[in-house]
Known about the structure:
With about 160 residues, the protein is mainly alpha-helical. The protein has five helices and no strands. The longest helix is centred in the last third of the chain and has 31 residues, at about 130-160.
Amino acid sequence: MPDYTTAGNPGTTGSDEVVDVLDDLLENARDGEYGFKACADEVNSTQLKQVFQDRASQCAAAASELAQLIRRLGGKVDDGGTVSGAMHRGWVHVKGSLGADSALSMLEECERGEDAAVARYRKALKAPIPADVRSVVERQAQGAQRNHDQIKALRDQMRAKA
């Protein structure tokens, strides 16, 4: 296992700080997984249901990868997502229960979540993290950006139809 002490890797943070960065991204990935599952449960469109389920699976895979890195660095993996993620999912369910579960409203909620995900990855990439961890974070950041772009494009298509 690489040594992530600051003295051993000038320009990088110690393993506790790296774990903190990864913990934030893990919460983000879990929020994405749970949020996309909530949207899949609420939306009526078969096509969007599949898109949301696929995104939930991708977020779950990212969470698993981040959890492995955290464990490898000696960190403890916490369960669950964030309070803001729970509020986001609650809003999705409220919209669904009030009949506002249109494809457009679900896509708008997902885009808000993906905006937050992209921002968290950008923040993580500004941290001085080791090269092997950075490569994982960069790859996942690219995936978050792709998710964002796809959701935004679908949202824009729905707006054009409205």
